[in-house]
């Protein structure tokens, strides 16, 4: 609680307040899809870099256009909410998600002309449209998950939904890498056509999911308040600071993922080809999946400490086994990852199920891991950077739920501001790209260290000022 008593102001309709299983399952499919497509950018970057002979800075325009669309789309949304009232309150969360799915399908379809004409600028345009679609999905879906139940367990639910997002980001480097680097690569010859068929398939999938969402019954949430417009969301300090928190978190996470394949190919690190390094990239995103499933359990206020321990260990083992089954690596090659999973488990128990405290602890760990990678070489540098994904896991969910806690009628407006801050995924990789061109890729990772430094500050602030346990 910050200042006065915080009230949510959102209520489900009476007939839909009892069971949220189907709506939540539907939401998890959306989180999976945008995780998968977003992680495909990490495959596109080295592919397009080599295809068009780009510098690091130029190749990071992929992320700049994709995540820049989040900023542009969210600014437009916020302007509308300021002058006309919150659009989501007017059209509903379901229609907001449907619109996002259709725009996302259009963005994927535009990869077809980009591939046929083989023009880098057209690829960037397609990514921008795709990012606009994801902006609408993020604005509608993230707060919708938070509203599907008690606000005190919102972090747990959003971590679970984000875990399925991470399942998508984990599978994408393996499947996407196979499609682009192998199946559609014209026998190893670089070609823009390698992206054509996969993204047409994604277009069809988005449209099918849109049809399913249209057909199912989703509960309707609306505010009991009648006040609209204005800059009401800005009066909440946890939101103002959380906007920067999302900016730096997304920037740090995306920047590391974007450079991972090129980093592992560097002669001072592992000197391995793209076809192999895509498997290690899957571990980076897979670590986020492990951490998010563990976070969902850890932040669940209804479980005892002993049950949490049992469930978390069991889930960690199961997901590690899943990762081992999908990556083309031996057990010896990935066994070091187990030690970092144990460290991740320890971090959750030190955090004691408190979202803000856990956020601060994980930020400290990530700063140490990235700094270690900067000042070491070979396997140590590789594993410390790969393991950052484990501790990235709960950051978005915890920052998001802490930021919108108690915003009431300003929840969607606040959500649009937080989604606007995903601009970090456009700006931070570009900054690191420029730095990598000037001082080398190895030491350019000082940029994510700075990002995690701010997240540490935000976690400490919320631990002192935002008390979710005091919310009604």
Structure commentary:
- This protein has about 475 residues and is mostly helical.
- The chain has one domain: MFS general substrate transporter like domains (Growth Hormone, Chain: A, Up-down Bundle), CATH 1.20.1250.
- The protein is about 75% helix and about 0% strand.
- The chain has a two-stranded antiparallel sheet with strand order 1-2.
- Helix 10 crosses helix 20 and helix 10 runs antiparallel to helix 21.
- The longest helix has about 30 residues.
- The N terminus is likely disordered.
Features:
transmembrane transporter activity; two-stranded antiparallel ribbon; 21 helices; MFS; 472 residues; Growth Hormone, Chain: A; mainly alpha; 75% helix; 1% strand; cell membrane; Glucose/galactose transporter family protein
């Amino acid at each position: 609680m910050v200042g006065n008593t915080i009230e949510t102001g959102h209520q489900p309709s009476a007939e839909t307040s009892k069971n949220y299983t189907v709506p939540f399952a539907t939401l998890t499919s959306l989180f999976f899809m945008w995780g998968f497509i977003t992680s495909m950018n990490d495959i596109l970057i080295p592919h397009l870099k080599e295809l068009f002979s780009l510098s690091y800075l130029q190749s990071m325009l992929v992320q700049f256009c994709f995540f820049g669309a989040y900023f542009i789309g969210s600014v437009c949304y916020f302007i509308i909410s300021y002058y006309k009232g919150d659009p989501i309150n007017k059209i509903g969360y379901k229609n907001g998600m449907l619109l996002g799915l259709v725009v996302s399908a259009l963005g994927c379809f535009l990869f077809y002309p980009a591939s046929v004409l083989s023009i880098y600028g057209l690829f960037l345009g397609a990514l921008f449209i795709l990012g606009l679609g994801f902006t609408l999905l993020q604005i509608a879906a993230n707060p919708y998950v938070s509203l599907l139940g008690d606000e005190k367990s919102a972090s747990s639910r959003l971590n679970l939904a984000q875990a399925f997002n991470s399942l998508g980001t984990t599978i994408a480097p393996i499947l996407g890498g196979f499609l682009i680097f192998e199946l559609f690569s014209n026998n190893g010859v670089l070609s823009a056509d390698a992206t054509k068929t996969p993204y047409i398939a994604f277009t069809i999938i988005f449209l099918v999911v849109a049809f399913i969402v249209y057909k199912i019954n989703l509960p309707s949430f609306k505010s009991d308040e009648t006040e609209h417009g204005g800059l009401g969301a800005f009066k909440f300090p946890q939101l103002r600071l959380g906007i920067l928190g999302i900016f730096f978190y997304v920037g740090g996470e995306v920047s590391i993922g974007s450079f991972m394949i090129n980093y592992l190919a560097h002669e001072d690190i592992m000197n391995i080809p793209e076809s192999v390094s895509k498997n290690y990239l899957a571990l980076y995103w897979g670590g986020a999946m492990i951490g998010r499933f563990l976070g969902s359990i850890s932040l669940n206020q209804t479980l005892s400490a002993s049950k949490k321990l049992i469930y978390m260990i069991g889930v960690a083992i199961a997901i590690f086994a899943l990762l081992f089954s999908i990556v083309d690596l031996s057990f010896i090659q990935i066994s070091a990852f187990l030690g970092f999973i144990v460290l991740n488990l320890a971090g959750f128990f030190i955090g004691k199920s408190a979202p803000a405290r856990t956020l601060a602890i994980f930020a400290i760990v990530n700063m140490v891991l990235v700094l270690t990678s900067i000042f070491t070489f070979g396997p140590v540098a590789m594993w410390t950077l790969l393991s950052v994904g484990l501790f990235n896991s709960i950051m978005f969910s915890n920052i998001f739920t802490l930021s919108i806690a108690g915003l009431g009628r300003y929840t969607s407006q606040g959500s649009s501001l937080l989604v606007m801050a995903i601009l970090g995924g456009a700006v931070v990789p570009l900054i690191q790209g420029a730095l990598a061109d000037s001082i080398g890729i190895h030491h350019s990772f000082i940029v994510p260290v700075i990002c995690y430094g701010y997240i540490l500050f935000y976690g400490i602030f919320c631990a002192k000022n935002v008390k979710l346990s005091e919310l009604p």
